[in-house]
Amino acid sequence: MPLDQTIINTYTSILREELVPAMGCTEPIAIAYAAAILRHALGEQPEKLNVSLSGNIIKNVKSVIVPATGGMHGIAAAVAAGIISGRPDKKLEVLGCLTPEDRPRIAEYVNKTPMQLSELDTPHPFEVILEGFCGEDTASVHLVRRHTNIAAVTKNGQDITADYTAENTAAGASVLPRDIGDDDDCQHAAARELLTVENIVKFADEVDLGELRPLLTRQMDMNMAIAEEGIQNEWGAAIGRLLYGSYVVDRENPGDAALDPISLRNKARAYAAAGSDARMSGCELPVCILSGSGNQGITSSVPVIIYGRAMKLDEDTILRGLLVSSLITIHQKTGIGCLSAYCGAISAGCGCGAGICYLQGGRYYEIAHTLVNAIAILSGTICDGAKPSCAAKIAMAVEAGIMGYEMMKSGHQFYGGDGIVTKGVENTIRNVGRLARDGMSGTDREIIRIMLGE
Questions:
Q1: Are strands 127-134 and 137-144 parallel, antiparallel or unpaired?
Q2: Is the pTM of this model over 0.85?
Q3: DSSP character string of 251-287
Q4: CA–CA distances in Å: residue 392 to residues 74, 159, 273, 338
């Protein structure tokens, strides 16, 4: 039976909202975006600022390099880069307009501008509040739940939020319901309840790629470009380059080597890790994000592309594999939340295993078993912020996804009652959401305390 049109429209809308470009790690870029709005609202650069952030934002900004700053990292660098940019219209590519000549201006702004940092007491893992002061004028910006979700903008006590949200509303940026509750951190949770593994596979099989093709080809082009950059050049801990050195190539029979299971698995891990190496260390190439994360965008897409090209599949088939990987990643993250103590790369690694299974002819039965196997292997890996070691976690997440597929292919699986695995793939996915959102909430707070040296 063909999929209901409501499901097709909803899944298409979810992908349209998720697959967007971002330059740099998305949490510091969200701060830079808020800072650019603040400068625009104030009309000039603030002379001092109050920066109030949820603990998860602090965690994900503390150690990562901010692009276009000349190697600066942390909260102050993200704020200053956004102030110097002053281009809120660029959203998560707000730093893309900065030039090398702007770097000393960013450093000077950090050095001369008082910034008072505080941690918000908030139920929202994602929340940013910036207040800026210049002479007699004040302005504030409030982002909550999502990286570009503007809750409020004020100038001198006057609400001017509509000046910054009218464009999105007029353009119909979202056709999904917005009835999320106060404790929902992933956007449009009501619509995402329509996500199931079975329907995702049907969607990938049946949907007309016409409307989605530009999104998916952008995902492919952007994420492979930064992966290639990480392979070619030394970034961060160079995990990708290290793994690529283990990529076995048969010089006499390169066609056979491309499909050698060990070689192909190593190459998929290497390229995914290399993209994160570059991104976490300040590379200025954009990434097509997923679930608000560039690392998850890379992890869910690059291995699928590597496998599809090695198998010499046509582009449309690879794009449909990307649909499976992307939507299954989003499906897992819906129950977890956008930011948590649970490493999102693990969800994306499980997603890429499902996408690879799809490329090799697997459908619902095979993908469901691949996914349960992969979830059982690495669930519970902690997120201790964005930083170079994310690349190593990504390599292991891809390994788990591929191992889950290899287990299924060889007739092996984990069964209900094995740890958090429950009979039925949807039940196991729900267990992961429960583990991450409820069970690991205390873990998240302790991670943040450790990172802040408390």
A1: antiparallel
A2: yes
A3: SS-HHHHHT-HHHHHHHHHHHHHHHHHHHHTT--S-E
A4: 21, 45, 6, 21
Residue at token pair 């090398």:
100
How is residue 312 written in tokens? 């010499």
Could you report the per-residue pLDDT of 218-234, keeping only the tens digit for each? 999 999 999 999 999 99
Residues 290-335: tens digit of each pLDDT:
999 999 999 999 999 999 999 999 999 999 999 999 999 999 999 8
Phi, psi of 193 (to 5 degrees): -65, -15
pLDDT value of position 197? 97
pLDDT tens-digit map of 53-87: 999 999 999 888 999 999 999 999 999 999 999 99
Q: Please tell me the distance from the alpha carbon of residue 319 to that of residue 224, in angstroms, as a whole number.
A: 14
CATH of domain 23-171: 3.30.1330
Using the predicted structure, report yes or no on whether residue 183 has a pLDDT greater than 60. no
Q: 113: burial class by Cβ within 10 Å (0-12, 13-18, 19+)?
A: middle
What whole-number distance in Å separates Cα of residue 442 and Cα of residue 265? 35
Give the whole-angstrom CA distance, residue 5 versus residue 310: 34
Collect all residues with Cβ–Cβ distance below 8 Å to 196 and sequence separation of at least 6. 331, 426
